[in-house]
Ring-1,2-phenylacetyl-CoA epoxidase subunit PaaB
Amino acid sequence: MSPEEGHIQSLDPRVTRLHIEEEPNPAPKPQLDQLETYEVFLQKKEGQPYVYVGPVHAANEEVAFLFGKEQYSRRAMCTGMWVVKTQHVLVSGYADDNTSVYESLPALGSTPDAAEQAYEIFHLKKRGKAHQHAGTVTARSAEHALEVARQTLHAAPPVVNVWVIPQNQILREEEDKDIWATTPEKKYREAIAYRVQDKIDRFKAERQAQ
């Protein structure tokens, strides 16, 4: 259907009025045309598990770490942060709210020729909540790590979903605690912190005296 017959080529009316023909075979976008996605996990207090807080888009993991710190820890207490590229997160299927996804996973064998490495396991206990760190396992692949987690973590239902992340793919900062230092009280943001009533009263008195 042509533009004259009512076909809308774009939500922008300026584009529609130009009658620009669509490319039959548009060229693929070059690699890294868009920023990559990274997932961010925070530890709010010492000894507490890391919890998923959200994604960031960045050109590399160092920039993703800075974006994550600025976006997710600037206004909240934090003692550590993990950042990992989204493509390194193995996501299991989803289970019902009152069951465990481990019960429905098929038995998976290890990869005989692969070297063992550490994997971080995150559990989603309820839909709408955040994934929380459940433990670390050693396995030969991410799929094998899921099987090891089923056997060793002994998570009580519900476990709606599981994330598996290679430990060596996580950019973390847990040693330098100074970077997480923040002012616990920010009274300067509140109107009550600006005590100007005395000046207002003095100004009114001066006006009345004139």
In short: The first helix runs from residue 13 to 18. Residues 1-7 have pLDDT under 50 and may be disordered. The helical segments are 13-18, 61-72, 142-152, 197-209.
